[in-house]
């Protein structure tokens, strides 16, 4: 079919609109974070002067006095630990669902789906009360447990979809060729399963990284407050300055690495987000 | 159509010969699933049961000595307060408008990704950016953009320089909805794209030969065949939108009657420490979510088992 130059022009406009729409808030945050305080209210999208003071103030005072370093460590630590546990548990469960026949399989999948739809706010009150009684309030574990619960359905569904695509016969074939069962598993199945497991891990990490409701309800100090919660409680240099600049700088610090990561692994993320919805 | 239900039985292996083998397979399967199932129940089944118990009591952590069984009085307090109904209206308003915009926009982006003659990679790359950004961060970005002091929006042509977006209820909603739509449209677009690629191109060719216009091809082929994918995407996004919390908390904290039901629950539970009233709100929110899911599954025939958690 002939492609006219008009077609190209229309598609270029459509694509440009999507790209601009997606990028505006990110560029805007970078812009604000670079504005010196006196230029903050100039209402310009592109800063005329550039200053890195907002970034410096985030890390000033070292680990004890910086408003940002501890929440950053909490966010990374809690998300990584949750991801590790969640992926191990979900892999066991997804393997059983994808490969074994047993009654209760449908119930587990339906239950996981129900939990994915569950409103987290309904558990916040009881957890707040229980965690205070158990000493889990304002601890890493106090956040890891609810994150685990709400990330497992996502991880199980993504992994079941990936595990169903694995040609498991290869395992037997390798054993026929003389591999031990252990070798057959580590040399054949693990490399085939790794991309799916990695994809599920990215999605779970982003889920924990993003949470706000549990983070503000079940923490009260820098001992376990994560970045999203810390941002909401940021204060300015003095009580007379708005924390806009520091919030923007902190937002850029936690956003840019994730964007780079997401772009680098975009194919996997798209596969994971649509896994199970449709067989490609 | 090859819409794949994750709940489909796995490809049958060789039929088990000995029942002892079947039994050991079952045992292994249950052992593998048990930790995940326990972890999922730990923070859902038990707390929701506990929330029901709390909601029937007079528990206010500011007055720990008072209290006791209160019957349904917490529920009647909530249901007879105008605040609850205002918040329900706000939540449903934000939910319906943002999901409707997301569906149209998500479909447009899915079509661009599917049909574009070039630049598909660029579009896919850029729609993943909102997905990767923390909701709170996105909310701050839009808040700063619309703020009369720091924002660039009022500097744009056609918009009054004096516009105080967060000074009124519905202008606040507009910004909240914009932020929600920006953050979650990519997910909608990707789910719809997954449904779109399963449609056989020959159908379009045949329709074109028969003289169907592009619009006819969209409404007579694309939409009907995508109905299952659309319903599932709508169900998940609707439930997600009903829980709206982060964006409102950052932008208005519920001021000027912009509170959602989740913010109401949070305020009762965490700010006022009234666990009895807060738990009644929690249980009512749970029932609303259940009702929405029920309407989608029974009323619209959404095949949930074909969906997947977001």
**Distinct helical segment count of chain B:** 12
Instruction: Find the CATH superfamily of the largest domain in chain A.
Output: MetI-like
The geometry of chain A reads as: globular
CATH topology of one domain in chain B: MetI-like fold
Quickly give the CATH architecture of the largest domain in chain A: Orthogonal Bundle
Low-confidence stretches of chain A: none
Measured between the Cα atoms of the first and last residue of chain B, the distance is 22 Å
| CA distance, first residue to last residue of chain A | 26 Å
Largest interface: A-B, 108 and 109 residues
Structure description:
The complex is a heterodimer of chains A (280) and B (310). Chain A is mostly helical. Chain A folds into two domains: 1-51, no CATH class; 62-274, MetI-like (MetI-like fold). Chain A is built from 13 helices and no strands. Chain B is mostly helical. Helices cover 67% and strands 0% of the residues of chain B. The longest helix of chain B is centred in the N-terminal third of the chain and has 34 residues, at 82-115. Residues 1-14 of chain B have low confidence and may be disordered. Classes of the chains: A mainly alpha (280), B mainly alpha (310). The interface between A and B is large, with 108 and 109 residues.
Question: Could you name the key traits of this structure?
Answer:
heterodimer, A: 280 residues, mainly alpha, MetI-like fold, 2 domains, 0% strand, B: 310 residues, globular, disordered N terminus
Question: What is the compact description of this entry?
Answer:
Chain A has 280 residues and is an all-alpha fold.
